[in-house]
Amino acid sequence: MSRPIVAIVGRPNVGKSTLFNRIAGKRIAITEDTPGVTRDRIYAEAEWLNKYFTLIDTGGIEPASEDIILKQMKRQAEVAIDTADIILFLVDGKNGVTSADRDVAEMLRKSKKKVILACNKMDKFVDEGNIFEFYELGIGDPVSISSTEALGLGDLLDVIIENFPEESDTEYNDEVIKVAVIGKPNVGKSSLINRILGQERVIVSDIPGTTRDAIDTYFKSKDHEFVFIDTAGIRKRKKIYDNIEKYSVVRSFAAVERADICLMIIDVNEGVTEQDTKIAGYAHDNGKGIIVLINKWDLIEKDDKTYKTFIDDVRNKLPFMTYAPIFPISALTGQRVNKILDEIIEINNFRNMRIATGVLNDVINEAVLMNQPRTVKGKRLKILYVSQVSVCPPKFVIFVNNKELMHFSYVRYLENKIRENFLFKGTPVVFTLKNRGD
């Protein structure tokens, strides 16, 4: 059984993203009064009356447009329609039926899917009379709503869940591994996701900034469930010009925060830049599992020293991430891409690993015997015991006689000893100091 999928479709600027955010319960999709802001399919988990489903926001459909981005938006909407169990056809109740609405309705009738028609922007009682002209679309009874004012959404959601397929899984699942693909603009994030999934899931273009939202894609492989989050490229603050891109960068950082593991992509032609260190540092500071991928490896000339030279350069410029695996890939040719899922699963296991307190303290006591803490003004630090208090990322509390005597270099020494014994590949570990009796 699979979770029901509901796709919101319609012509541009009818309020699809606002409705999507309302149902999802948080601001995920970017909303602006600019047609074409939502370009890709955006996924979110939603719930109504304890029934969980996947909601998809799509770019506005302009059937007659020849613009390259608008044509790809139409293609993405068509893929969402093919994927969905239920299609939520959104129209603008204030403006009435348009020729674009008729074209979209014709496309939906051909899909043979269950379609629910919702008339949006019905904020006032005087607008209610407009609803009757939408019967001409031949979709069925329209549901009157206002996504901005949150009017009629309960009635709409009741209709949606009544039409879920009988054999569907509407229970909550917390076993999904959330993976954010991060990096600067145009380093190949969308291409990598498409290569992993084996389909054109997100729009790929040489135009930087094509991806504006953090886009979620559900994927199942190797007996594990994943959600891949394709993020807008994160630029330097001074290079962010318009409001839409500002929202995109905020959404990218929010995607890092809700992810379990981040795939940090670096362009081999540029190497590790200052901006790369900031992006990686944000993931590190938020305790996320990290894999560093050197993309476009197929485009450079190589000899027997190229690999080592590049890995050493990454390690030197990202010294706070010595735990992160690094390997070169090509999203274009698929080189080494097949290793990524195995790495994600392994790192996720380490993020969830717990060490028994007795075993952990045996390691710490041996480390202290091998290298005693230095004295500070005649006083010596005493480590009483260490305990792991949580996972994702692994967090440890070190109980000492006086935490003012602990030097950061000694904490790093203890971390290295823990990693020698338990590895914790791909994940930061966090240490907190507490005095005796705290």
TrEMBL record:
Gene Ontology biological process: ribosome biogenesis
Chain positions recorded as GTP 2 binding sites: 183-190, 230-234, 295-298
UniProt keyword list: GTP-binding, Nucleotide-binding, Repeat, Ribosome biogenesis
A Pfam family reported for this protein in Swiss-Prot or TrEMBL: KH_dom-like
InterPro entries given in the database record: G_ENGA (IPR031166), GTP-bd (IPR006073), GTPase_Der (IPR016484), KH_dom-like (IPR032859), KH_dom-like_a/b (IPR015946), P-loop_NTPase (IPR027417), Small_GTP-bd (IPR005225)
Annotated TM spans: none
Domain EngA-type G intervals: 4-168, 177-352
The keyword Nucleotide-binding appears for this protein: yes
Binding site for GTP 1: 10-17, 57-61, 120-123
Quaternary organization: Associates with the 50S ribosomal subunit.
Similarity comment: family membership: Belongs to the TRAFAC class TrmE-Era-EngA-EngB-Septin-like GTPase superfamily. EngA (Der) GTPase family.
Function noted in UniProt: GTPase that plays an essential role in the late steps of ribosome biogenesis.
Name of the protein in question: GTPase Der
Organism: Dethiosulfatibacter aminovorans DSM 17477
